[in-house]
Amino acid sequence: MRSALCGLIILLLLSSCGKQEVKPVSEDSKIAQEAFKLAEVIKNAYVKNDRVTIERNSTKEGYQELIGAMKSFDNAELALTPRKVEIEDSTVYLNLTWNGTWTIGGKRTEDRGMAIFVMEGRPLKLSRVLRSNPFTQPE
Fold this sequence. Notes:
Blueprint: H1 2-16, H2 27-47, H3 51-56, H4 60-69, E1 75-88, E2 91-104, E3 107-120, E4 125-131
Antiparallel strand pairs: 1-2, 2-3, 3-4
């Protein structure tokens, strides 16, 4: 995730270099960066089983959905890779792929998928996870 975010920032910087005039960062770019950051915060809180941070960064409905779907695990590693951001009014759709490894009672389970994190409001909060939800693992 960090490499994707760094790549995006470098790409934005390179596209603005070499010109006389420095263009300000667009509002859509700022929103996309905020979405990337929120996804990383939620992922880290999930791995640490930090329900307070998940609740703080989710809408009420989003929190209930995530907590209701979460399964217990001894250890988890989760990698998120953003693929596309769509912004419609005040709703942000972050399309990403994920790879995860969970350990339960010494048994290791691996899985991967593609999810859409739906984020709303200002500041952004996670309201839903569509498609293959990494937080419902391991199954």
